[in-house]
Automatic annotation (TrEMBL), chain A:
Protein known as: Peptide ABC transporter permease
Family according to the record: Belongs to the binding-protein-dependent transport system permease family.
Gene Ontology cellular component annotations, sorted alphabetically: plasma membrane
GO biological process, one term: transmembrane transport
Record keyword Zinc present: no
Source species of the chain: Streptomyces shenzhenensis
Record localization: Cell membrane
From TrEMBL, chain B:
Coiled-coil residue windows: none
Upper classification of the organism: Bacteria, Bacillati, Actinomycetota, Actinomycetes, Kitasatosporales
GO MF: peptide transmembrane transporter activity
Protein name per UniProt: Transporter peptide-binding protein
GO biological process annotation, one example: peptide transport
Automatic annotation (TrEMBL), chain C:
Protein name (Swiss-Prot/TrEMBL): Peptide ABC transporter permease
Source organism, top-level taxon: Bacteria
Transmembrane helix found in the keyword field: yes
Keywords: Cell membrane, Membrane, Transmembrane, Transmembrane helix, Transport
Amino acid sequence: MTAELDVLAAPARPGRASPPAGRLGRLAQQPFLVLSWIIVLVVIGWAVAPGLFTSYGPYDGDSAAGFAPPSAEHWFGTDRLGRDLFARSVYGAHTTLTATLLAVLVAFGIGTVVGLIAGFGGGIVDTAIMRVVDVFLAIPSLLLAMVVVSVLGYSTQNIALAVGVSSIASFARVMRAQVLAVMTQDYVKAAYGLGGGRLRVLVRHVVPNSLNSVIALAALEVGTAVLAVASLGFLGYGAPPPQPEWGLLVAEGRDYVAVHPWASIMPGLALALVVISTHRISTSYRKEHRR
Amino acid sequence: MSDLRSSIERAAPRRKKWPWAAGAVVVLLIAASGVALTRGAGSGDQGATGGTPVRGGTLRFALIDYQRSPDPQWGTNYAESLIGDNITDKLTWQDPDTGEITPWLATSWEYDKDLTEFTFHLRTDVTFSDGTPFDSQAVKANFDQYVNGDEKLGILPNGAALMPGYLGTRTPDEYTAVIRFKKPLASFLQASSFTANAGPGFLSLSTLKLSAKDRTDPAKVIGTGPFVYESWKPQVRTVLVKRKGYHWAPPALRHKGEAYLDKIVFNTIPEASVRTGSLESGALDATLDVGTTDEKSLADQGFKIIHRAVSGTAIFFNLNSQLFPTDDIAVRRAIQLGWNRDALRKTVLTDSYSVATSVLEPSVLGYADYSGSVLKYDPRQAEQLLEKAGWKEGPDGIRAKDGKKLVVKLLGINNLVVNKPAYESIQQDLKKTGIDLQLTVLPIPDYAANVAKAKTDWNITAANRSRNDPAVLNLQYSPLLGNGSYLTEDSAGIDVDEVTKTLGKLERTLDPAARKQYAKAAQDLLLDKYALVSPVYNPSQVIAQAGHVHGIVFDAQSRNHFVNTWKNNGK
Amino acid sequence: MLRYLALKAGRALFVVWAAFTLTFVLLFVLPADPVDLLFDPAELNTVTPEVREQVADGYGFDKPVLLQYLARLGHALTGDFGSSVQSGRSVTATILDVLPSTLVLAFGALVLALLIGFVIALAATSTRRAWVRNLAEALPSGAVSVPVFLSGILVLQIFSFQLGWFPAFGDQGARSLVLPMITLAVPVSGPIAQLLVRSFATEFRSGYVTTSWAKGATRGGIVVRDVFRNASLPALTIAGITFGNLIAGSVITETVFARQGIGRMTQAAINTLDIPLVQGIVVLVAASFAVINLVVDLIYPLLDPRLRATLATGSPLTA
């Protein structure tokens, strides 16, 4: 499991959308950011329409062509059953991204609501919720995910759920801190002063202005979840065969690393690029909304 | 020579003296290989054939598992049985080549006609490593605890499955033990030599009095074997040193006196690439659990690959006879016929493994070859069978009958590296005949949890059973015991009584000719008449070893014995 | 002050108790029966119900769940977590046996991770070249983007098998520690480096630095003298997260490098549903986490001069 990069930055200021032209202009000055977006979009393309990117099927093995090295014909080489590893990576993007999305949704959805209730509710509600969050924070997420998978059983969905559940606490904590920070801002006090109802203030001011950091965290969580699924695959909690899944491709390829290193390295490279890209996007999002 | 060796050992960890030590090692290596060359040896690897055995030295060995406790009568993994087999001895030794039961701690034995009473005459010169004698009292105390366990001490009934119906042991004199059973148990003779999981190796009376907790102190676990514990570090390594004065190796091994090696270090290395790399770099002398893809490159580099198939059953697909759709014999037969043995051999297996040609592995008495009849790749016949039984191909290529799809759910274990790719290869083939084989291949604990629900949830359970005796079929498939195919009154078209009786006969005689005949009848029923099992491949234990290692023995259950092992690289 | 202390300590205790209870509940709803795992899977169908019952009875698994919970809790309070289902040894002794290996590895990795973090932050802050800064800022993401098991195996292939510089397995001697330490330190260094880069940058722009500029100090001088000390403090705030990363990383590192330790034991314990052992480990980890956070909470105000001043003037601390 990966380290959790901290995104609890300075308290958010009231956000103002920049004019679109300015945003594009800034993008052009940041080639790495552009590259990151391209990588992420390509991978999303793999997940949505894999057939456009490869002519091989993920399950079509050619028993005579096992363990072929990368070539013009097989970009990533083939696995022991002769299946094209590039095709398996492309089709695997669907499984991996679906699982990641589910994990992020669970963590983001539950974590944000819990954090919002704690921060906005205050008092005993806050105390009760945050003590529970403390407990979840105290157990390293990989450990928690391992136990949750053991309980739920083995499937890609359950692994995604486990990874999501193990990140709820981080989201709740960040959301709560943001809510507290926003509520001390003058404009929120002013909104109260103007006679705004509690709910109205919550929906119009607190939620939108608190979400920025959490959205940045969600972008990070995409990378974290991809890696977490890979680590669980390594520890033997993998998706059922023959379904291709990135983490599992890396984990299964590692046994042949001395003889056929690409079986592990090529999907590993794809995985690392996606994680770095999501981090870059997360950072730029956060920077943009802090100014 | 030994002085020089010990000075090298002492000097090795010190950095400054490193070049000297390395130089000395190189000189010794060259000398040793020179000696080996002039003798023209080095091709054989079985004990006496590899040249003149050298005494002394430490064998650095690696395997994937570790001992969770040093207690040799407990344990369900390979490290536990293998190490346990080297610190304890058994009553008898089963010849791995012929399957014959030969003397070990018992010099001779006889049994009554009913096969309910087995009398063993023991060697009189055997002692435990604490100096106490091995006698009939020790046999009785061991078997009593082995079968019944001891609740107070936290000792499990480890031998309950191996010795069903055990009544007790009589000790007419100091060196005679009579073991008695409720029902005929022909397989007990083989059980007296059993070396796989939770084997009946003898422990001293002082060890038997210890609780499970106290047995985690390796110094207190006392056997009669050729090695004794030096240390045990869970997850990392077990170190054995040779037992001084040992001279009762199984006569069949033709080994005189103590073990050749001074010491064996069993390193636990979970990662396949690390085991292989460490062997290549010289940090290990030999390693078990060699990855199939590494075999060839290791052999190319001059390492010796030795292997033996695990005697017992093949890796089997046990077909659930009373659960849709495997309750249809046409489906069961189509699964037997629908996958390509050649493709499996080429893409997944190496020369160390073989495609199963019966539910029994070929070294087991009574094995018969079914590769020409029911266990062959014949997709056309499989399709015809399914068509005839009303399974029509759907738009997605998967067959269906009465609106229900031909989906077959398999439960397997991922403990052997070959399992997952082998099952995936079969999955690919069966799909072409219109069978959707869905795989769930899990670690052992989760497999165990699911086996409890196998009768109602899984069409196929895939595993194997290590036991070099044809009665393994009775244990695994008898409706009264393992009931591997879940035979009940709901199993359409199967005479359950017939199966019970046919398999049961294997426990009623020790006459080899009769047992062969009964084993054939049992295989005919399981594979042909009722098609209850589709065996896949014969699992193998594979060791890669450096050229200077000789005489690692595979026993009848393919566990390794090191009493014969020696090294000639001077370390 | 005393009230503050009591409150924080109370919270820490609550965390430990809740972790204990949570694992108990989770493990009790597990689909598998721990008793099944004591037998050879191939023989499972042959094990008679009587034998099963007898075994369950021996471990106390047959008592009502609440009674089991209370009994375990009572013992746990005295530091007794029962015996491992698998080996029969006491959980406390089993954990204490392997704890030192993990501590050495984790401590070494932590020092190395801090070193990496500071080097990256210094490089990012003290350089005038944009590309160096960009690269240094990108490194933390890179550090956490490769699965630990893959980096571990690749490191082994290169430094142990190709070059032969370090042993590949085992835990004898300092040299066997180098590769696992690096493998574990890299992902742990990611968040530390990121935080340091940010706080270095913040400090660099702050008032007292401007004063130093005015006094004619050099860029490097400022970084070392002023920024370094003040900017390092925030690293303490992620001590808890770092601890969690070290533990999670050790699960994988210890497996790849075949080392003894808490991480590998955790995996084995979860895999074999060794309830007492899992519980002992989780409680130990949660307690360590709580203690670390408690200590950080208590000493942080003492270390930061600005906060110390705030405390002295009696103005309330902000949330």
